[in-house]
Amino acid sequence: MSDLLAHVPHTRLVPEGSYGPEGKAGVRARQVLGLAVATLTARKGKAADLVRRLCAAGLPLVDAPKAVSTMAFTTIGTGPGRWLVLAEGMTGTALLAHLGSLAGADATLTDQSDANLIVEVTGPDARATLAKGVAVDLHPSAFGAGDAATTVVSHVGVTFWQSDAAPAYRFMVARSFAPAFLRWLTASAAEFGFALSGTGRG
User: Which of 27, 106, 144, 181 is buried most, with the most CB atoms less than 10 Å from its CB?
Assistant: First the structure.
């Protein structure tokens, strides 16, 4: 990794481009932009009521490590009575207002839209790459579309989920740790050919 990314300061995101063997991209990753993100936490004793209320309103919640998507929203269970809610085409302020109107006094909300970086990882060698650092069994029989986990990757805390069976994975990582996560991902994927986009040029 020292030779591969020697030109990239450790505090900067890995620049978009191709890494590893030329003409090969067994792994692809892109920064996902334009998402509003909020944490939704049920107040004590209100988790079941909150799940019923929001599901009835068309916002699916599962009180488990699962990712569920509708046309506009994705909810990810990150702990008992706790979720991330992602929305496309909406500001963080608008997402909080929408969730507040649905949850009422049963939950607390925090805007996380600017606090995290979201990276989507795909390609035929995505599982082999992630197995180098993700302490979760990613075999399809153990972790499939809709499954989610909060864990540590190369000493960096992440929440990730499998968004489809292709497979495609999405990782959410705090922005301050995003350079370290991308350095690990680039080094791990380079042997398969790695194409990174959405992070800007160096």
Answer: 27
Helix (H) or strand (E) segment spanning residue 32: none
pLDDT, tens digit, 9 for 90 and up, residues 41-100: 999 999 999 999 999 999 989 999 999 998 889 999 999 999 999 999 899 999 999 999
Q: What is the pairing mode between strands 168-174 and 67-69?
A: unpaired
Q: For residues 167 and 122, what is the distance between their CA atoms, to the nearest angstrom? A: 6
pLDDT of 122 > 70? The answer is: yes
Measured distance CA(41)–CA(112) in Å, rounded: 13
Which of 108, 102, 104, 88 shows the shortest CA–CA distance to 56? 102
Q: Choose among 126, 145, 166: nearest CA to 74.
A: 145
Closest CA to 38 of 58, 61, 13, 57: 61
Q: Considering only CA atoms, which of 11, 22, 32 is closest in space to residue 198?
A: 32
E-strand stretches of the chain: 17-19, 27-31, 35-42, 67-69, 73-79, 82-88, 107-111, 116-122, 148-153, 156-164, 168-174, 194-197
